[in-house]
Amino acid sequence: MTTTTSEDQETIPSKRTLPSDTDPLKRLKPSTDETTVEAPNANNGTDIHFQSLLRIFYQRIFPFTEVYQWLSYGDLQKNYFANREWSFTLASDVYIRFQSFRNVEEFKAEVLRLCPVKIDIGAVYNIQPRDKKTIQPGAFKPLERELVFDIDMTDYDEIRTCCSGGDVCRVCWDFMTVAIKVVHRALTDDFGFKHLLWVYSGRRGVHCWVCDERARKMPAEGRRAIVSFLEVIKGGENAGRKTHLPKSLHPSLRRAYEVLVPHFRKTVVEGMQVLSVRDHWTKLLALVPDEDVRKRLDQQWSTHERSNMARWEDLVSELNAKKRPLYNVERDIVFQYTYPRLDSNVSIGLNHLLKAPFCVHPKTGKVCVPMDPDHCEEFDPMGVPTLESVLNEKGVGKGIGVERFCKVFLRGVGEEVRRGFKERNVLEF
Fold first, then answer.
1. pTM for this structure?
2. Residue 30: pLDDT band by 50, 70, 90 thresholds?
3. 66 flagged as catalytic
């Protein structure tokens, strides 16, 4: 479907509404952890129901005040929130960029008016984005934006054997757990950042917002340098070997490797069972530079039934038995199969937008809830609150709410916001 884009404020056609005698909350059914809501624009009329529930969600549950306090950072800088870009995607597939709001009241009123199926957050500009056409072309510039990272499960499709595309299960979700552990530790230990917000994307990935002031003020060159430091997996889908690591690893990568090894054995070898089918094990063996080892193991595994872990131990033994041990081959395989895969363009460009926390994903109905990086292994994407479950809780006392995720949200960004309020000598956030 073609998407219509408008760079300026525009008049949006009125939304379809339910008959006046229909109460959307009465139509809710008791939900389970895996409840999903079909996307808007579905041909079966679900879009009307979805939009009605979404409007109630914005009216009663979406934490407008907390999001405003986060993105104003204590209002230390005049017009900091007002100069922030927002974009809305509507149920009609209209996409509106360069929206801006002077305060939380304006922001909330416009969201309630348009009831967008997706809200994205952009950079802080030199003027209010909605006024961009009042100045000379080229004078409208982004000044600040949180350093963000977008990690998407589809980038792991070449190694996933359980799912593909937008599908996710608990086995492959472990790749996101690894990504959070590795990236979070690198950003805090190697770069000294303190205020990181991790958010579930609502379907198949995670987002990270680095909210420290020096991260927000960082130019594109600095962001590129950080991405380059973190990036290990390089090359397109058809590239065989995607890691080109030095013989001696940087301390940051050595720490990462300690995280990767147990997850590789649990998720890739045992969970994905990459050594159980020849099509999968030949792809892994292609990363071994020794042809004799490749042929010998391929023949052995084709004629003898062995567990996946036993076959992995076969490979490790072969690598260590060579006259010139191929120690780094085992290491490089582990990195290629488990190290985080980053979308560098999202992190580098200041004008890139990223989905706002607490949105509802239109295809899954799941709320984009914040995640606690210290307990990321406990996060279950199948148990995330859905649009229906949170309204069940508010409407009829059932379901899973978002309040506890608000607490995670405040832990991630609260200290940086409180710093701004303290400097202004006002009540703490």
1. 0.85
2. very low
3. no
